[in-house]
Amino acid sequence: MSKLSLYDFNDSILGLLECPVCMDSMCSPIYLCKNGHNICSECRQQVTKCSTCRDEFLATRNIALENLAEKVLYSCDNADAGCSEKMFMIDFPDHNSKCPYRLYDCHQMGEDPCEWKGHRWDLLDHINKVHTRKLKVDENEPNILHWKNFNINETCVYSQLLSLYGEIFWLHEKISAEEKRYYLAVQYIGLTEDSTNFTYKVEFASKCGAYEVTFKSFTHNDVEEKTALFQSGKCASLEYPMIQHIINGTTLSLKLSVTKFEE
Ligand SMILES: [Zn+2]
Ligand SMILES: [Zn+2]
Ligand SMILES: [Zn+2]
Ligand SMILES: [Zn+2]
């Protein structure tokens, strides 16, 4: 008898789990027709007759096949984009939200929210083509940024894409009128484990122009939503009394540097 590898065995089971209508892998609940043919729950709602024998469907489920479906390893939904992860059905939601091959949103500040969705490696190209106002940030020099007309009474969120070291990052900023607080976070776009290859440092300027209040952290990974990031306490933030203490008229000035660890 020829030897079957575990992966081949897994794939042969996956073949049995293919829905005859949509060709996707079926998972619980799986329904049956009168003659024992299977159908996935989504297709079950859309078709009235079995595609194999044209007979009626039953309300009965194929429990044995549902149990089997839980034991099989499935490929990620983003396999076509390059993800090679295989996982149990139960791990799908968690992986989908973190998969580095998923579709990303564009957060770039502009008149209207940007509708673009795409792969992370297409993001820079999209920004260059569509968004004209861009932030220039230098790799080796600390970058001096000025928040003009800084108004603590108006909540606003700004995101800008940074392109440094051949990598891309989001610079997220928020003024929260409710919390009377200003937030700044730099988020690395790419594999989660690579976000700790970079640090960012924020130095706020005092009224006399000296840079004193300092914050330093690894860049954040791209799994966390920016709102969660602001709330997490892991990013740079300033309370209103401190802002009042250092703001120059209505301009808040800061130095931002992003540094890469050299091996
Ligand atoms: Zn189906
Ligand atoms: Zn049938
Ligand atoms: Zn994936
Ligand atoms: Zn965009």
TrEMBL record:
GO terms for biological process: proteasome-mediated ubiquitin-dependent protein catabolic process; protein ubiquitination. InterPro entries: 7-in-absentia-prot_TRAF-dom (IPR018121), SINA-like_animal (IPR004162), Sina-like_RING (IPR049548), TRAF-like (IPR008974), Znf_RING (IPR001841), Znf_RING/FYVE/PHD (IPR013083), Znf_SIAH (IPR013010). It is an enzyme of class 2 (transferase). One of its GO terms (cellular component) is cytoplasm. Its EC number is 2.3.2.27. Belongs to the SINA (Seven in absentia) family. Pathway: Protein modification; protein ubiquitination. Residues 19-54 form the RING-type domain. The RING-type zinc finger domain is essential for ubiquitin ligase activity. E3 ubiquitin-protein ligase that mediates ubiquitination and subsequent proteasomal degradation of target proteins. E3 ubiquitin ligases accept ubiquitin from an E2 ubiquitin-conjugating enzyme in the form of a thioester and then directly transfers the ubiquitin to targeted substrates. GO terms for molecular function: ubiquitin conjugating enzyme binding; ubiquitin protein ligase activity; zinc ion binding. Keywords: Metal-binding, Transferase, Ubl conjugation pathway, Zinc, Zinc-finger. It comes from Timema cristinae (Walking stick). It comes from the Eukaryota. This is E3 ubiquitin-protein ligase. It catalyses: S-ubiquitinyl-[E2 ubiquitin-conjugating enzyme]-L-cysteine + [acceptor protein]-L-lysine = [E2 ubiquitin-conjugating enzyme]-L-cysteine + N(6)-ubiquitinyl-[acceptor protein]-L-lysine.
